[in-house]
Amino acid sequence: MSHSSFVMFEEEYREITAVVEKLLRETNAKCVYLVDKDGQLIASTGETHDIDATSLASLTAGNIAATGGLAKLIGEKEFSILFHEGEKDNLHISVVGQRVILVVIFDKRSSLGLVRLRVKKASEELGKSIQKLLSRMEEGSAEKESLLKEISDDDIERLFN
């Protein structure tokens, strides 16, 4: 199910960025990305200079969508955690609040156990920030709708004359 794009408010962006940066430090990861399920990058930190963030975001969202299809085939709602092990680097991908995707890229300086433990705590914090953000977006949408209802055809005519 597609959701509307995020409208990021400064307060929530700072909260989200702080959690992502804390996760990077606590896991000793190479980098951390937060992506929405539509494939848009929300936040990133760490050694991100050699990674095409746009491609990573869209491929991660596609990966979650594909594994969601696999989950449904076997009667699951979704797989909320994915792990990809490489020769040098590993990817830990988790769905947060059924709305965003947390990607942690780590190497031998860290361990899967540590990443899983820290991601669980960070996911709770991120979930609260995302809920707060979604609530603010709904409030803003209701305000816009109310404002649009107040504008009459005569107001529009006067504006363009």
Would you mind describing this structure in some detail?
With 161 residues, the protein is of the alpha+beta class. The protein has one domain (10-160): Beta-Lactamase. Helix content is 53%, strand content 19%. It contains 4 helices and 5 strands; from the N terminus they run αββαβββαα. It has a 5-stranded antiparallel beta sheet, sandwiched between helices. A hairpin with a 4-residue loop joins β1 (31-36) and β2 (41-46). α1 runs antiparallel to α3. The longest helix has 39 residues, at 112-150.
What kind of oligomer do you see?
Answer: single chain
For this structure, the CATH topology is: Beta-Lactamase
**Architecture per CATH nomenclature, i.e. the level-2 architecture:** 2-Layer Sandwich
Radius of gyration: 19 Å
The CATH homologous superfamily: Dynein light chain 2a, cytoplasmic
> Main β-sheet, in a few words?
5 strands, antiparallel
User: In total, how many domains does the architecture comprise?
Assistant: 1
Helix content: 40-55%
| 3D shape | elongated
The termini sit apart by 43 Å
Mean pLDDT: 86
Query: Which band does the percent of strand residues land in?
Result: 15-25%
Order of helices and strands: HEEHEEEHH
Q: Give the strand line-up of the largest sheet.
A: 2-1-5-4-3
* CATH class designation: Alpha Beta
- Parts with pLDDT < 50 across at least 5 consecutive residues: none
User: Total helix count?
Assistant: 4
